Amino acid sequence: MHLTGVGRRYGALGPWVLRGVDLDVPPGTLMRVSGANGSGKSTLLRLLAGIDAPSEGRVTGRPRTAYVPERFPSSLPFTALGYLTHLGRVHGLRSAVATERARAWLERFGAAGHARTPLRELSKGTSQKVAVAQALLAEPELLILDEAWTGLDVDARAELDRTVGELTASGVAVVYVDHDPRRLAGAVDAAYRVEGAALLPDTGQVHEPAPRVTIVARGRAGAPLPAGLPEDARAELDAAGGATVTVPAAHSDTVLRALLRAEPPWHIRAVREPEAEPSPLSYADLSYVERGAEDR
Ligand SMILES: Nc1ncnc2c1ncn2[C@@H]1O[C@H](COP(=O)(O)OP(=O)(O)OP(=O)(O)O)[C@@H](O)[C@H]1O
């Protein structure tokens, strides 16, 4: 599978979560994706899984794909086995084969005792085992795992490690996100990190994300964000004219300047320093606002 110039933003005015992503996922590759919270890892995985479409760019050569989402929809009206059998049939298996495979995967992950338990009564860890089983049942050519180890007990985690090894050895490509950098570390063929909306090769060094400042501003209801915001700024607009912009600290002045010089200017309500609680404007911020006003 190949991604060419792929970008994703949520909403026409939303900031780009991913942009200019070019990526090859050859058969049999074990690929790790890392990045800070909210950097866009799950967004990338959903695009790879084919359950979300890029806002720009192309995805070509899609293989048969299965996906273990970060959050499993456990409120469906099925038992664990009923759900897996149903999905097996969706994937084109005969009922008896689907049930047999479902039982085998539940057994392998230590959840056979919960085959008849309704999904909504399963513990978080057992739900996660069902989520993993539904993906494996499909015998995918590409498997996408979004924090699939989270919530699993030690044995099931080891089983998932083993399963991933077997799959990649048999030519299945596996792309995964996991908060533990040691997860499958020795076996990884390709590692990337999402940073500033770009997908970068991960050299294995620990990259501290640049501290981000949050600027809360109010403009005219329905007004678009002003031009001139830095590329790495992320903004959320609400219908009443409120905007929350986060930006690496080094570029916060550029954001403030763009907001204050807009016509009509935006009112800056708070500037939140990295790691700090939301605070009203400090004296220094106010003097900046005054300077900004004079600049106009
Ligand atoms: N459906 C959506 N609608 C609007 N914004 C979204 C949606 N999904 C994700 N986002 C935004 O896209 C950005 C990236 O989110 P994503 O979940 O891909 O990050 P992540 O790296 O997986 O985060 P985490 O490590 O916390 O799981 C965030 O700012 C998030 O708020």
From TrEMBL:
Pfam families noted in UniProt: ABC_tran (PF00005)
Gene3D superfamilies: P-loop containing nucleotide triphosphate hydrolases (3.40.50.300)
PROSITE patterns, alphabetized: ABC_TRANSPORTER_2
Highest taxon of source: Bacteria
Keywords: ATP-binding, Nucleotide-binding, Transport
GO molecular function: ATP binding; ATP hydrolysis activity
Residue ranges of domain ABC transporter in the record: 1-221
Xref: InterPro entries: AAA+_ATPase, ABC_transporter-like_ATP-bd, ABC_Transporter_VariousFunc, P-loop_NTPase
The name this protein goes by in its record: ATP-binding cassette domain-containing protein
